[in-house]
Amino acid sequence: MEEFQASKPIYWQIVDRICHQIVRGEIQPGEKLPSVREMAIQTGVNPNTVQRTYSELERMAIVESKRGQGTFVTEAKDIIIELKSRLQREIIEVFVNNMKELGYTKEEMIIGLKNFVEKEDRG
Amino acid sequence: MISFEHVTKKYGRETALNDVSFTLEKGKIYGFLGPNGSGKSTSLKMMAGLVFPTSGTVSVNGKKVDRKIAAEIAYLSELDFYYSAFTVQDMINFSASQVSDFDWKKAEELVAFMQLDPNKKLKQLSKGNRARLKLVVTLARNTPILLLDEPFSGLDPMVRESIVKGLLSYIDFANQTVVIATHEIDEIETLLDEVIAIQNGDIWAIENVEELRETKGLSVIEWMKQIF
Amino acid sequence: MTAFKGLYIKDLKLSFNGFIIGLFLIFFAMIASFALKEYFVEPSIPAIVSFIIIVLHVFYLPANLFTSLQVEAQSQLWLHNPNRGWKLFLAKIAAGITYFVASLIVSIILVKVFIVRTEYLGEFAGLSEMLGDNLLMIAGGMFLSSIYLTVWLLFYWTLYHALKRIPFLNQIRWFVLLVVWLSITIIGNLIKKIPVVKNLQELGTVNLYHFATIFRGNTVSPETAELHLGSILISILITVGVFLTSVWILERKVEV
Asked: At the top level of its lineage, which domain of life is listed (chain B) (predicted)?
């Protein structure tokens, strides 16, 4: 059973988790997702909520449900690429907003980010 | 569909339920939440036809509830009551004989799932295993309505988890209405569609769990802290 | 398995211990009676004891039912059952009768083996003859009286548990039962005095001459040997009425 944040709907938190797993490659394109019931048992979440998660993922075209077979992650590369860049955008957005709030300029942000990444590369 | 219309229950001067009206829809999981003595247990017993209102009407699918409702409702009591001469298998056989909707296959699966020994006497079982067995015979019935009164009370985390998993695995979500009365919200928060907050015999609020998070940014526990 | 069979087996299991204890008591009483016989050099003691054992069986069924009902009363969760109240009660009565008959048969065998063959019974010779020749009749009569007592027990038991939901009577439930019992007894006696009822009771009198001659000169008075079909009919009606009333109270008034 998994932990969930209080401030966001649970169905949305599961959508997020699945998206992250797809981007990380833990779930491959074309792979079958667990059934609603299985997913509910894994996460300890009400199946109605899981159903909502799957509907949302389907609406986002990240998964496709095949009648009688289950729900599968899309094989369309453009959608996966779009998902990747969306997640990136989201993280950058949070980062940028936090920096702005602390009063950093755009240039300072870019320099700081550059230094940080290079330092990490050097070990 | 379960509905309460101006239901009051009095025990002498004490009021267990005070002019309560609400409706529970088919195919949802409801959490009846409130402290001990808030009236949630009384409400469940009324739905099961085991306690009668002093005034007002309790009805299930349009029919006024009486003891016959047991054919449509599986009720799990909070009490650790059992026939001490029974074995696990005796209890299953007996439960199966009393109702027409008993699903033997489901019962067998559940016994295995809960890791119960069919030949063990009930008095030799731990309290946790007896609670598991209670859930087995309740879930093995294919009834439109399932009422669980304090299914976690006094049980260790292992048992609680097996009960939650049992519920998730064996409830027929599209067709069964489930009402869980509890004062321990942690275990079931993610399980619920709707929550009903009850205190001192009054219904304080009925809310959709996901909506609470979406519109108020609150988990059920936080919400409960706010309203009580 | 049918619902009734399921209930019946459950009820057999509920009072199995009581049955075993009952048998032990009977054996113990018999053994004690033989010990007393030796001690007091009074050969009739086992005969008297066995007679008492058989007569006490009138209370066997109500006692058995009471213990069985008390198990259910711990939670009253047996009421969460789609089967009707009469089925719940009848299954208990059926289980009780099973043990009642078994216990009675054991007792009768003991009587046959130990008492009737006792060579010297002195002034209790009549008792021995009675036990020897009319056991079935006595057992049958006791069985019917037992049923009659049992439905009244059901009635008072359900009433007692129904009163629980009325808080101001809850504390004085035993007193309420006493008042109800007194009222029923007084009203019953008044009804009995109505001439029509009296006539009805004496309707269809059957004289049991054979039975009566055996006891002439013994402790059993000749009237006992008269059977009134009218009063039997009335008893049957009362039994059914009290049973149905108990079922009604159980279904409508007893809460969990």
From this structure: Bacteria
